[in-house]
Specification:
alpha/beta; four-stranded antiparallel β-sheet; binds adenosine-5'-triphosphate; ATP hydrolysis activity; nucleotide-binding; ABC_transporter-like_ATP-bd; P-loop_NTPase; Phospholipid/cholesterol/gamma-HCH transport system ATP-binding protein
């Protein structure tokens, strides 16, 4: 569980996060949505400990980040998995080399133990024949699976994903969303995903926070978001013609 209490983050005179309070539960896919520039990436970087808010607190399973020593922060960092936008794989390493990398960096496991763990997570993300391939030899959807395998190889308590669907076709995007949700539930991870993708909102938005100009404008579930009267949220959700039609159908059904 992550609790966020009134966090503020500025860069010089630019006040980007203006007092965000929320919480993200374990075993749930939590989504952060909002217009470009609303502060989603800065928020995710605060959760990752890459930016320290100048005001407010972030608490990870009862531990306040600001109260942790440097070595405790390092330990916490190792409990976090990250799926970057565009996958961010090492081009010169094979699929299994990419997934093994965190184990080599941060653990003292034997080669056989690491290989077992890599085989297990690659199988978990349904990649069985790609171990020896290089990123240039696999599809975008497969690259995301490798990025997810690498993010979970250390058995994280927290999983952060920045636009995990960017660059994927809608069908593959849904498979990746479902995989993230399954893994989140199976391993009881606290998962936070930055997204623009309304399909993700519908499919896996167990909790959604909507940011606007650095404020939390709204929060709720994927069921609630389609019923809200909050104008900023409806403008965002129904910016596409398809979703306007869905809303119209919903209103007609209700009446
Ligand atoms: N390191 C930084 N230094 C100065 N300003 C920054 C920095 N990082 C972000 N900002 C500013 O913070 C604001 C929010 O940026 P952020 O990247 O969090 O938006 P976003 O909601 O993730 O947008 P997008 O959906 O386009 O990625 C922007 O005005 C941006 O210019």
């Amino acid at each position: 569980m992550i609790q966020v209490e009134d966090i503020h983050k500025s860069f010089g005179d630019t006040h980007v996060l203006k007092g965000i309070t929320t919480s993200f539960e374990q075993g749930k896919t939590n989504l952060v949505i909002g217009q470009s520039g609303s502060g989603k990436t800065v928020f995710l970087k605060c959760l990752l400990g890459l930016f320290e808010p100048e005001k407010g607190q972030i608490c990870y399973n009862g531990q306040f980040y600001s109260e942790l020593s440097i070595s405790e922060r390092r330990d916490l960092r190792q409990e976090m998995g990250m799926v970057f936008q565009g996958s961010a794989l090492f081009d010169s390493m094979t699929v299994e080399g990419n997934v093994m990398f965190p184990l080599e960096m941060f653990t003292k496991q034997s080669r056989a133990e690491m290989q077992d763990r890599v085989d297990f997570v690659l199988e978990r993300v349904n990649l069985v024949d790609a171990h020896k391939k290089f990123p240039s030899e696999i599809s975008g959807g497969m690259k995301k699976r490798v990025a997810i395998a690498r993010a979970i190889v250390m058995n994280p308590k927290y999983l952060f994903c920045d636009e995990p669907n960017s660059g994927l076709d809608p069908k593959t995007a849904i498979l990746i969303d479902n995989l993230i949700q399954e893994i989140t539930r199976e391993y009881n991870i606290t998962t936070v995903i930055n997204t623009h993708d309304m399909n993700s909102v519908m499919e896996i938005g167990e909790k959604i926070i909507f940011l606007k100009n650095g404020f939390k404008e709204w929060e709720g579930t994927n069921k609630e978001i389609f019923k809200t009267d909050n104008e900023a949220v409806t403008n965002f959700v129904y910016s596409s013609e398809l979703f306007k039609k869905v809303r119209q159908m919903y209103i007609e059904e209700r009446n």
